[in-house]
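REQUEST ID: PR-0412
SUBMITTED BY: lab tech R.K.
PRIORITY: routine
TASK: structure prediction, single protein chain
INPUT:
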Amino acid sequence: MAFMELKGVHKRFGEKIVLDGIDLEVERGSSLVILGGSGSGKSVMLRCILGLLHPEDGGVWIDGRETTGLRGRAREEILSRIGMLFQNAALFDSLRVWENVAFGLIQGRGMPSRQAKKIAIEKLESVGLGEMVGELRPSELSGGMQKRVALARAIAGDPDILFFDEPTTGLDPITGAIIDRLIVDTVKRVGATALSITHDINSARTIADKIAMLYKGRILWHGEAARLDESGNEYVDQFVHGRTEGPIEMELYKL
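STATUS: complete
OUTPUT:
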């Protein structure tokens, strides 16, 4: 049985259909990447999984439990199992680095500050940042270091589910590749099930066990990452190789 599953998920905003019947499975301990361009529905799908948006039809199951519409303590219980690396890191500039990493432990779990700081430093070290970095402010860090801090925060609570929202956005190719490898190593080390959304093909190839292509709210292809170039799908082929001509271009010209 799938560890995480979406069944027939539909989501619209007014007349605009964003998710048009999403069926998707993520195996326990695996890393799935959702590929898709801007406006394909990736972020909306992620928000539906997190419970920030509620689909008009269909549902989400995590570890055999339907989570669609959960509220109160039941929703908090599910969220406590999830770690999230946000696009652009989303760190609090007013807090020191270690306080950012420990934020969920202190505010969400009521952990004493001293204990939370110890864990925060351990997590920072696990992503290649020393204890002295913990006393800095996010504004004093490079983009790559901020992503490392965000990753340390994501794993601070020892989650068994990790979400990555465009993890290499805003990074140069070399720094992006470093972050990708760090994500792979971290996911394996903590034994988490991972789901990432990105339009970065190189990043997807590195961090994914499996890849799904989302286009206009539908999954067009889902398979092993190693077989991406053999998808046999013209939409996937055009997107992966960045070609200007193909079915995606033709539909864009019709707008």
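NOTES: Residues 173-190 form the longest helix (18 residues).
REVIEWED BY: pending
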